[in-house]
Amino acid sequence: MKQVLIDYMKRFSDINDDELASIAERVPTGSFKKGTILLHQGEVPDKCYFVLQGCIRQYAVDAQGKEITFNFYTEEQSVTIFNQHTEDKTSNYSLSCLEDCVLVVGDLSTEQDTYDMNPVLEMMTRKMIEEDMGNMRDEFSSFMASTPEERFKALLVKRPKLINRVPQHQLASYLGITPESLSRIKRRFG
User: Fold this and answer.
1) Number of CB atoms found within 10 A of residue 137's CB
2) pLDDT tens for residues 129-141?
3) Does 100 reside within a domain?
4) What is the extent of the structural domain holding 25?
5) Which of 95, 119, 150, 164 has its CA 20 to 30 A from that of 20?
6) Considering the entire predicted model, what is its pTM?
């Protein structure tokens, strides 16, 4: 499982395989069962994650009690709720394991100590975050400018396995459509 992490870190660093393996061995991981809530909406996040195996859903419950799915994180994706800019530091989102997961688990309270012991890890993390932020910005812009059918087509191209990994009502919410609309769109692409 650590090989997934090593392969991912290679994209952001030119250090040798032995050094990457050494870093990966020191990185804490955990296994989480399907249904585990990693973070509840309204809590102050104290962990960040990197998915080695499994699928995590990011969602919120609105004032009317409706769940809205904002993202799904799968293998080789980092999961961090950035909320240091808010007054109370609480999360607007919940994180839930949709499958059994194996995750790298970072402790936000010891993040700087970890970077002090592994300066290369800090540089890699910064590059990873920059890539994630760029991708999120591009995806959001594309989402806002596209029709539901175009969003589904993009999902087929970029994340085709997601369609069979997550419940359809959550996928519809993620695409900003009703489950009935998703069914109609899927039939057209059948």
Assistant:
1) 10
2) 888 888 888 888 8
3) yes
4) 2-145
5) 95
6) 0.87
